[in-house]
Each structure stands twice: as structure tokens, then as C-alpha cells.
């Protein structure tokens, strides 16, 4: 029964997203609050431009072949926007990754960003550094880059693992302005403590949609919010019914 | 550009596969086909390791050629790779020595940085700037004290406070964030299926 | 070289270095000179112990070992305790154990170190009592495939022996033939209950202390039967097994480093508060 119930909820969520995307296409664009972290991207890059320094970016240890794919995709979307802003301001961009499948994608995204900014001459393939699949290699490379080059801006979005502490800590030590975020909950405090602005939980996915500033993306976010209201209603209803002795939700969630 | 290289081809493949996997997961129909598709996932992942290997070699060979900063250390990467790769097939004791006596201590040492930087964060970021930060730090202090044996050793109330923080507010917050994470993942997948994601396909730069 | 060294070291403010040095001393001293603080065993550790103890005669255990040596300090004691306990039930109840790694090669390295250096494997025979499927990359898709069709995703073990040729794996198809799932992960625990909870078999977890809060919703929902959270869980398990070891020795260090962290937070906030007062004047 739980399979039927879960599939019904999934279809409902997809329907909400699809409906709101279509509504947004027709001009019924929802108002989404601004995320300070997304707004701060130009501030961070601007600081790097003033100091003649670079911006370091990392998507953490997540790849595209595991459950962190959605986080990594959102982080790559943000990275495309950051690369574009770097191109506009003439700032060197550096992306360090530990997943092989991200290398060609990142090179394309960063190059596209610089081309869109009209600064394609500044792009070079060395902006993307792959350190091997090891998390510790990622830590060592980022640590080395941060301490030697002292970038003025440090950003980390995506699936952050233990390298989060090292990368953000090193950024704090060298005095970089930092922004970042991860839906991986137990590293969220690291971002809160070391960043000027941080994304917590699902804000990363919303940020990935917001950077594109496309109306359809805003519609999709509204669709998800509708579904969350449904979840809240179900949680409240199940609490009341279960307390009253009903076994409806036990039946709905039975294996 | 041939259709197979176009973004639409990738999107179509992705959409059909995702919908099929979701359909078989919930209905149980064509389960064998689903198993076959899942079987291909580790094969594709293995091939991506080759992509990474080529990139590592290319990047580091260029570092040596251009005499970039600290290029003198870069040949160690090639030597290390060859040593581990060859020893695995020729001399297992050498391979074990390389892994247990070199690689593992270096890995554990790198992870020691995590602890070090935690204290950097405490030093630089743990400020009670407002009431929310005060509650955060207060609960962090109580959790740290209650989790370690010293807390309940001083007084059992610290262990009980820790268990309450863990069981009630922490679990409640986690549940909410997990629901948010799940919906966010579905959002990203649906956006991809509807073709709203930015180009993540190599070769799209010309269309920008 | 010496210029680069002093340049790199000079990047760290003096106070950071002092803080780290004190941290190192506070963490290292109790390991060298143990204090022996008392340790209570929590209910979840007792449940974990009971679940393994209750594996039926001839039971089949699938153990997904996805942590690495980097997390050994935190999860090693729990993993060692779990495998030690499994060796006991293997001898007592003729239980069979199948190890596999799905996330990355580090799990196999850590498993090999534990089996060869930390667990007493005397009387336990590879092939008869346990096998290792090695690394099957793919993570969650591999976890799903292991539960659906074992022989398709893993036709041989790590030594190349066909599973069909091993008597106790020849007829094992998937989750319906497993008696218990165990997983050890240094990252997020979501994929395991997501793929395995539907089969209504006990699932045990070895995880980091920070991940334990992530596991709790699954535990509360009954999807994960029990778990060992980090060093503390490992130490408690050693107490349950009657063999205090690495975990118990780390507990003293954990106590002192936690106290040090608390004192650091308090000192920093007092200093910040006094500085703010001075600036307001």
C-alpha cells in the first residue's frame, strides 16, 4: 500500500510543478523571495576584482552518478552564473573537483559563462582542476590553493562532505569572503559559521533555479511549495488521526 | 550537429529512463528490465574513472611542461600511480605496504585537518550575535557535554538533556529538512525532464 | 623551499597555531594516559547487539562496507565490534556473512585492514563462513540491484569464484533470502533504508556521530532497526561485547576535547562581549 500511496504523492508533486510551470509560461509568474546568498555572488566577485585576486569554487565530493546528483546539478548551475559574473568583472575563476565526470561539464559551463560575458579570451582549461577521486586529494589541493594564492572569494555549493570544514576553514584563515550551502544537513553549521551568507537545506535547489532567472523555474518552485503544504496537511492529519486511534495512515504506509 | 549529440537526444533518453524506472519501481512490472538497467549503472561509472584518469595525466603533464608552481612535486603523482598499479599485479606485499604504510597514514593525517579547522570555526565563528545564535551555541555546548562520557559522569542530567535535544528538536528539524531535500531532488529531476536545466552537455558552448 | 615554508606557516595567525597545539595535546594525552571515565550503554546499542545475537541458525547477513580509513578513528571501533560479534554468531549459529562495497574503493581497503589486523578471524574460513564481493561501483543502484538480483550484479566474489559454486550463495536470489542488512557509511545513510526498508528485514547501521541525527527519523519510523553512532557507539558496543578496546580508549580523549571546545566557545564569546562593550564606550 505504501508504494501506491507514495506513487500517488509523487504524481501529485509532478502535477503541481507542471501546472505552475505552465502558468508561469502564460505570464502568471510567482514572486519568490530573494536569497541573500545568490545576491551576494556579485559582491564576492566584485571584492576579488577590487583586490586583483581570484574566486575559488568547489562543488564538494558529490558527483552526477550518485544520490547527490541533484545537489551537484544545482551547484553547477550556480557555478555557470558565477563564471559569467567573473567574466564580466575580469576575475580569474578556479574550480576544483574530485569527480571525473564533472571535468568536461565544468569546462563547458565556465567557458560559456566567460563567452556570455564577452570575455572569452580570459578563459583557459586550467580553470578546472581535477584532483582524482579522493576526498583527501581535494582537501589537499584546495588547502594548497587557498594558502598559496589567497583568493578573495571562496564559494562552495553542492554535496559537501568533510572537505567542507577544510575548504571553508582555510578560506576563513586567509580572509576570503565566503558564501556556500549544502542540503547535507550536518555540514550546514560549517557554512553558517564560516560564510557571510549560506544556503541551508533545499535552498540550494531553489538557488539553482533562481540564478537562471527564468519564469518557468520560478513556477516550478511554487509547485514544490504547494506540495509542501500538502505534506504539512498530511502530517497534521496523521498526528490527529493516529492520536485518536485511527489506523488509516498505518494502512497507507504499510509495506 | 547530429541528433545524437544534441541536447534533445540526451534529454529524451534521460526522461524515458527515469519514467520507466519510476513506473517499474511502483508497479513491479518489467522488473527484469529494471534490473538490467540498474546493472548498467556500475559499468558506466567504471568508464568515467577512465575519463578522470586521462584528465589527471593531461593536467599534470601540462603542469610539468609549463613549469608551474611547485611542478617538482608533480612527477610523484605519475610515480605513485605506476607503483600502485604495477605492484597490485606483480607484488602484493609491496602493494599492501604502499597502501597500509603510505596511503592510509596520509589519508588519516589529512582528515585530521577537519578537527583542526573545527576549532578554527569555533574561534572565528561561534559568536552569540543574536538570540538565535545564543540558542544554537547553548544547545551545541549541552550536546557536546552530554555526548561525551564526562557529561553524564558529572551529573546524569546532562546525558538526559543531550538525549532530549537529540530525540526531539534535532529529529524534528531533520525530518523537515529531509522532506525539503526530497522535494528539491524531485524538483531538479522534473526540471531536467521538462528541459529547463542549463546546458550540462559538452558541445553546447557553440549554441550560447 | 624554506622561504615557501615560512610563507605558508606565516599564513596561519599565531593564535590559530596555539589553539591547534592545545587541541593536539588535549586529544593525545588521554590516549597515552587513559583516565577511564565510566560509560553508560544506551538502549539503541543494546538493540543493535540483540539484533545480531538473534540472527537465526544458518542466517544470511549482507554487510555493505562503505566507510574508509579516513573515518576509521570514528567508526573503526563500531565496525570492529560488529565484525567481532558476527564472528561469534558465525561460530555459534553457522551464520553466513557477505561483504560488499558500493560507494568507492576505500571501503575495501578499510575492510581488509580490519579483517587482517583488528578482528580475531581464527576458526573463520573464507568461502565457508564469509565472502567478499569486492567493490561494485554504483552506490545506490548497486544497493537496489543487490536486493533484487544478487547473481546478476555480482556473478563472482572478489577472488573470482562464481557465486553459483559456493553452496550457501548458489540459491540466494535477493532480499527475500537475506536475514539481515548491515551497512557502514561515512556519508549519508539515505540510500540504504530507501532501497532496503521495503523488504521488511532488520537493517543495522554503523555511522558517524553527526550522521546519527540523520538516521534517527528512519529509526523512529522503524526503517532502521538500530545503529551505532560514531566513537561513542563503538565504545558502548565494546562494553557490551566485554572487550574494551580502541573505542573505550578514545572516549577519554573525546571527553577532554569536548570540554576544550566548550571552554574555547565561552572564552571567545566573553572576549567578544568585552570588546563590544569597550567599543560602545
How would you portray this structure in words?
The complex is a heterotrimer of chains A (255), B (208) and C (281). Chain A is an alpha/beta fold. Chain A contains 11 helices and 6 strands. Chain A has 2 domains: 2-31 and 214-252, no CATH class; 41-195, Rossmann fold (3-Layer(aba) Sandwich), CATH 3.40.50. Chain A has a 6-stranded parallel beta sheet, sandwiched between helices. In chain A, helix 4 packs across helix 9 (203-210). Chain B has 208 residues and is mainly α. Chain B has a domain at 127-208. Chain C has one domain (47-247): Rossmann fold. Chain C contains 12 helices and 6 strands. Chain C has helices spanning 2-11, 14-32, 43-53, 72-93, 106-118, 140-148, 150-153, 167-170, 191-196, 209-220, 230-241, 246-280, and strands spanning 60-66, 96-101, 130-135, 180-185, 203-207, 226-229. Chain C has a 6-stranded parallel beta sheet, with helices on both faces. In chain C, helix 9 (191-196) links the parallel strand 4 and strand 5. In chain C, helix 2 (14-32) packs antiparallel against helix 12 (246-280) and helix 11 packs antiparallel against helix 12. The mean pLDDT of chain C is 89. Chains in contact: A-B, A-C, B-C. At the A-B interface, helix 1, helix 4, helix 5, helix 6 and helix 7 of A face helix 1, helix 2, helix 4 and helix 7 of B.
Quick summary:
The complex is a heterotrimer of chains A (about 260), B (about 210) and C (about 280). Chain A is α/β, with parallel strands linked by helices and about 260 residues long.
The biggest beta sheet of chain A reads: 6 strands, parallel
Strand content of chain B: under 5%
Instruction: Briefly note the structural class of the backbone of chain A.
Output: alpha/beta
Cα end-to-end separation of chain A:
6 Å
* Straight-line distance between termini of chain B: 15 Å
Query: Could you tell me the number of beta strands of chain B?
Result: 0
- Shape, principal axes of CA atoms of chain A: globular
Number of domains of chain A: 2
Order of helices and strands of chain A: HHHEHEHEHEHEHEHHH
Amino acid at each position: 500500500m505504501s508504494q501506491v500511496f507514495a506513487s500517488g504523492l509523487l504524481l501529485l508533486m509532478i502535477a503541481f510543478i507542471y501546472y505552475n510551470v505552465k502558468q508561469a509560461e502564460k505570464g502568471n509568474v510567482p514572486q519568490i523571495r530573494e536569497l541573500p546568498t545568490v545576491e551576494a555572488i556579485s559582491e564576492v566577485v566584485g571584492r576579488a576584482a577590487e583586490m586583483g585576486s581570484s574566486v575559488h569554487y568547489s562543488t564538494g565530493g558529490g558527483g552526477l552518478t550518485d544520490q547527490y546528483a541533484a545537489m551537484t546539478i544545482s551547484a553547477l548551475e550556480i557555478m555557470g552564473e558565477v563564471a559569467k559574473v567573473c567574466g564580466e568583472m575580469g576575475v580569474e575563476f578556479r574550480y576544483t573537483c574530485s569527480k571525473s565526470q564533472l571535468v568536461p561539464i565544468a569546462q563547458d559551463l565556465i567557458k560559456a559563462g566567460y563567452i556570455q560575458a564577452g570575455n572569452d579570451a580570459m578563459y583557459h582549461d586550467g580553470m578546472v582542476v581535477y584532483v582524482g577521486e579522493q576526498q583527501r586529494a581535494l582537501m589537499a589541493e584546495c588547502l594548497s590553493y587557498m594558502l598559496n594564492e589567497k583568493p578573495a572569494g571562496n564559494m562552495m555549493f553542492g554535496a559537501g562532505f568533510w572537505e567542507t570544514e577544510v575548504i571553508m576553514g582555510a578560506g576563513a584563515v586567509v580572509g576570503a569572503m565566503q558564501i556556500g550551502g549544502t542540503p547535507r544537513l550536518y555540514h550546514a553549521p560549517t557554512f553558517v559559521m564560516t560564510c557571510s551568507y549560506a544556503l541551508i537545506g533545499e535552498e540550494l535547489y531553489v538557488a539553482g533555479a533562481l540564478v537562471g532567472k527564468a519564469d518557468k523555474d520560478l513556477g516550478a518552485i511554487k509547485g514544490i511549495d504547494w506540495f509542501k503544504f500538502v505534506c504539512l496537511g498530511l502530517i497534521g492529519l496523521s498526528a490527529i488521526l493516529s492520536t485518536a486511534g485511527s489506523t488509516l495512515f498505518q494502512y497507507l504506509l504499510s509495506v | 550537429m547530429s541528433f545524437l549529440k544534441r541536447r534533445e537526444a540526451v534529454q529524451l533518453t534521460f526522461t524515458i529512463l527515469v519514467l520507466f524506472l519510476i513506473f517499474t519501481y511502483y508497479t513491479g512490472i518489467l522488473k527484469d528490465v529494471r534490473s538490467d538497467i540498474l546493472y548498467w549503472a556500475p559499468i558506466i561509472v567504471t568508464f568515467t574513472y577512465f575519463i578522470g584518469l586521462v584528465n589527471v595525466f593531461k593536467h599534470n603533464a601540462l603542469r610539468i611542461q609549463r613549469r608551474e608552481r611547485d611542478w617538482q612535486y608533480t612527477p610523484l603523482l605519475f610515480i605513485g600511480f605506476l607503483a600502485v598499479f604495477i605492484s597490485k599485479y606483480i607484488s602484493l606485499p609491496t602493494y599492501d605496504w604502499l597502501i597500509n604504510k603510505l596511503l592510509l597514514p596520509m589519508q588519516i593525517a589529512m582528515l585530521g585537518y577537519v578537527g583542526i579547522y573545527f576549532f578554527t570555526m569555533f574561534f572565528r565563528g561561534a559568536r552569540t550575535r543574536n538570540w538565535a545564535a545564543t540558542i544554537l551555541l547553548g544547545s551545541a555546548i549541552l550536546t557536546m557535554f552530554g555526548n561525551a562520557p564526562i557529561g553524564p559522569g558529572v551529573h546524569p542530567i546532562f546525558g538526559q538533556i543531550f538525549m532530549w535535544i537529540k530525540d526531539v528538536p534535532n529529529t524534528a528539524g531533520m525530518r523537515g529538512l529531509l522532506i525539503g531535500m526530497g522535494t528539491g531532488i524531485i524538483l531538479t529531476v522534473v526540471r531536467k525532464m521538462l528541459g529547463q536545466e542549463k546546458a550540462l552537455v559538452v558541445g553546447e558552448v557553440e549554441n550560447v | 623551499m624554506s622561504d615557501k615554508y615560512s610563507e605558508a606557516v606565516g599564513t596561519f595567525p599565531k593564535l590559530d597555531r596555539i589553539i591547534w597545539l592545545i587541541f593536539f595535546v588535549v586529544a593525545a594525552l588521554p590516549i597515552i594516559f587513559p583516565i577511564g571515565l565510566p560509560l553508560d550503554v544506551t538502549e539503541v546499542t543494546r538493540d543493535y547487539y540483540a539484533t545480531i545475537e538473534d540472527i537465526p541458525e544458518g542466517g544470511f547477513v549482507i554487510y555493505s562496507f562503505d566507510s574508509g580509513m579516513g573515518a576509521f578513528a570514528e567508526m573503526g571501533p563500531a565496525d570492529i565490534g560488529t565484525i567481532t560479534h558476527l564472528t561469534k554468531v558465525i561460530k555459534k549459529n553457522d551464520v553466513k556473512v557477505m561483504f560488499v562495497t558500493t560507494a568507492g574503493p576505500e571501503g575495501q581497503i578499510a575492510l581488509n585492514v580490519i579483517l587482517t589486523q583488528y578482528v580475531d578471524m581464527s576458526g573463520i574460513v573464507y568461502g565457508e563462513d564469509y565472502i567478499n564481493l569486492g567493490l561494485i561501483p554504483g552506490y545506490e543502484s548497486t544497493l537496489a540491484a543487490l536486493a533484487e538480483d544478487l547473481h546478476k550484479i555480482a556473478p563472482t566474489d572478489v577472488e573470482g569464484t562464481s557465486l553459483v559454486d559456493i553452496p550457501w550463495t548458489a540459491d540466494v536470489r535477493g532480499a527475500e533470502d537475506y536475514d539481515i542488512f548491515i551497512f557502514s557509511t561515512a556519508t549519508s545513510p539515505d540510500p540504504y533504508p530507501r532501497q532496503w526498508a521495503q523488504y521488511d528485514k532488520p537493517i543495522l547501521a554503523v555511522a558517524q556521530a553527526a550522521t546519527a541525527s540523520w538516521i534517527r527519523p528512519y529509526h523512529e519510523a522503524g526503517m532502521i532497526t538500530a545503529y551505532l553512532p560514531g566513537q561513542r557507539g563503538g565504545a558502548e558496543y565494546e562494553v557490551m561485547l566485554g572487550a574494551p578496546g580502541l573505542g573505550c580508549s578514545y572516549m577519554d580523549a573525546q571527553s577532554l576535547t569536548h570540554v576544550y571546545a566548550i571552554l574555547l566557545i565561552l572564552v571567545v564569546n566573553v572576549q567578544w562581549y568585552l570588546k563590544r562593550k569597550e567599543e560602545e564606550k
